[in-house]
């Protein structure tokens, strides 16, 4: 049970009474100064809440459980609301707001967030679902899809399709890096790598446009399996 404030505060009457010390103050500033500095109240005064607790343990329990105190224990910073603490944790500690796991840098956090994405892409060759189109493509390239499609199939289909379409996403089929980004000309060995690049927003290429293009490329191929 929370004990009442040990400093009675009445701003209308300019009445400020410290119960433990039985002292009356005529100004709030005087009462606060007493609560802050009196040895008998060491560790009992909450500055944010204007509350004098009966003990240091009581103050600690208050700070731990009150919505008015949101503490980063790593930095020993007390925020007045959860939103500010959350912003601090993300910006300073690269903390995931979904699972509260922390990472060494922003890039690692950004990569981790992908595990929390909803499953929105059904595999073109089986009934598995993926959170990203590039992950679905990697699944196909790996040869683990029950459709039997593998990396060679994906490469051949894309080269055939865009070779005829003036090579929007492709280099020459004999090149080590067979695929390229139409927006920035970065080159890739695998279609999945190209799609990961586009999804990362590293350039101006629109992901939805790329997904539409590759769906068109693969649609009739999978219908024929």
Automatic annotation (TrEMBL):
InterPro entries: Znf_C2H2_sf, Znf_C2H2_type. It comes from the Eukaryota. Residues 16-44, 94-121 form the C2H2-type domain. GO terms for molecular function: zinc ion binding. Gene3D superfamilies: Classic Zinc Finger. Keywords: Metal-binding, Repeat, Zinc, Zinc-finger. This is C2H2-type domain-containing protein. The lineage of its organism: Eukaryota, Fungi, Dikarya, Ascomycota, Pezizomycotina.
């Amino acid at each position: 049970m929370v004990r009442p404030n040990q400093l009675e505060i009445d701003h209308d009457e300019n009445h400020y009474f410290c119960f433990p010390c039985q002292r009356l103050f005529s100004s709030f500033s005087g009462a606060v100064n007493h609560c802050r500095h009196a040895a008998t109240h060491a560790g009992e005064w909450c500055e944010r809440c204007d509350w004098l607790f009966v003990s240091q343990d009581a103050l600690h329990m208050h700070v731990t459980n009150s919505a008015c105190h949101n503490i980063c224990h790593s930095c020993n910073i007390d925020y007045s609301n959860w939103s500010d603490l959350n912003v601090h944790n993300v910006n300073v500690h690269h903390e995931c707001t979904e699972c509260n796991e922390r990472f060494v840098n922003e890039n690692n956090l950004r990569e981790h967030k992908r595990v929390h994405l909803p499953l929105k892409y059904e595999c073109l060759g089986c009934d598995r679902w993926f959170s990203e189109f590039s992950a679905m493509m990697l699944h196909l390239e790996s040869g683990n899809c029950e459709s039997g499609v593998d990396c060679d199939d994906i490469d051949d289909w894309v080269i055939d399709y865009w070779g005829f379409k003036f090579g929007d996403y492709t280099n020459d089929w004999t090149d080590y890096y067979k695929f390229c980004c139409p927006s920035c000309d970065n080159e890739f060995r695998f279609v999945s790598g190209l799609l990961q690049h586009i999804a990362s927003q590293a350039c101006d290429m629109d992901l939805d446009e790329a997904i539409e293009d590759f769906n068109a490329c693969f649609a009739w191929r999978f219908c024929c399996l």
